[in-house]
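Notebook entry, structure prediction.
Reason for the run: the old model in the group folder had no record of what sequence produced it. Starting over properly, with the input documented here first.
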Amino acid sequence: MLRPAFVLLLTYLAFVSLGLPDTVLGVAWPSVRDGFGLPQSAIGWILAAGVCGYLLSGLLAGALTGWLGVGGLLSVSSALVTLGLLGYALAPSWSLFFPVGAVMGFGSGAIDAGLNGYAARHFSVRHINWLHACWGLGASTGPVIMTAAIARGFGYRAGYGALGLVLAGMMLAFILTRHSFDDTGPAAAAGAAAPVERSVKLWAALGSGKVWLGMLTFFFYTGLESGVGQWCFTLLREGRGLSIESAGAWTALYWASLTAGRLALGFVVERLGPDLLLRLASLGSVSGAALLALGPGATSRIGLLLLGLCLAPIFPTLMARTPGRIGAGLARHAVGFQVSMATLGSTLFPSLIGLLVSRRGTAAIPATALAISLALLAAHEALLRATRTSDARLLQTTP
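New structure, fully documented this time:
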C-alpha cells in the first residue's frame, strides 16, 4: 500500500492519461478524411461511436468501481484506451476505423466517471482544479505528438501508435499500484474528507430543477470546449492559411491554456469564491469566442487562447460545487448525469460544426463557438439564480 501522497500523485497521472488521447482527433482528422476519401461531416461517425461507449461506461461505472475498485477500473480502462489507439493506428478501412471510437469511449468514460467520483469524495475544489489541469497537460501534449508525426511524414497512424505506447506504460503503472486506491484514500493529504451521503432515489434527482440546470451548463461547456478544440486546427489550417506546424502549435496552445488556467486559478478559487469565478469565466469565454470570430490575424488567435484560459476553471469548479449546491445525496446521481450530458455536448456540437462546415465553410466554426458561449453564460446565470432562490427559501424556513 502506497502512502496517501503517492496515491494523490497517481491520481494526477490518471488525469494526464485521460486527457492525452482526447484532443488529437481534430489534428488527425484532415489526414484521416483524405486517406479514406470522406466528407467533413463524417467526423460525426467517430464521435457518435465514442459517445455510445462513453455513456454505457458512465452507466456502469458505479458497479464496475464496486467490483474492480478504483485502481482496477483505471487498469482495465487504460487497457481499453490503449487497444483503441492501436486500433486507430492499424485500421485498414473506414468501416473498421470509426467503430474503434466505441472502445475508446468506453475506456475513457470509465476513467472519467471513476476519477471524478473519487475526487469528489476525497479532494478540495483547489485539488480538483489542479487534477483537471493535469487533464489539460495530457490534452495539450496529444496534439503535439500527432502534429509531429504528420508534419514529419509518418502520418496519423504513427501518431496514434505513439500515443498507444504511452498509454500502455500508464496502464502498467496502474496495474502495479491498483490496490493503493481505496475509499480511505488520500483525504488527509488533500485537505478534504469524504462526505457522508444519505440515500436519494434517482427519480428525486431527476425531479430537481437545479440538477437539470447543472446538466445543461455542462452540456454547453463541453460543447464549446470540444467544438473549438476539435475544429480550430481545420479553421487555422484550411480557413486561415496557417502551415501544419503553426496550426498544430496553436491547437496545442489552446489546450495548454486550459492547463495553465487551472493551475493558476486553483490558487485563487477559494479566495474569489466558486460562483464568482464561474461567472467571470463564462463572461470571458464569450469575449474569447467573439475575438476568434473576428477573422484572420493575431487578434483571433489571442481570442483562441483567451477562450481556453477562461474555460479552464469551469468544468472542475462546477463539479466541485455540485454537492454544496444540491446536497450530497442528490450529488451522488447528479455527478453521473453531468458527466453524461458533458459527453453528449462534446459529441453533438463538434458534429454539428462538421455539418455546418460542409455547407458554409470554415467560417461556421467561430460563429457557432460564439453562439454556444452565449448559451453557456445564460445556462450558468439561470443556475446561479435557482441556487440563490433555493438558499433564500431555506433560510426563511430555518428556525
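Summary: The mean pLDDT is 82.
The old model has been moved to the deprecated folder.
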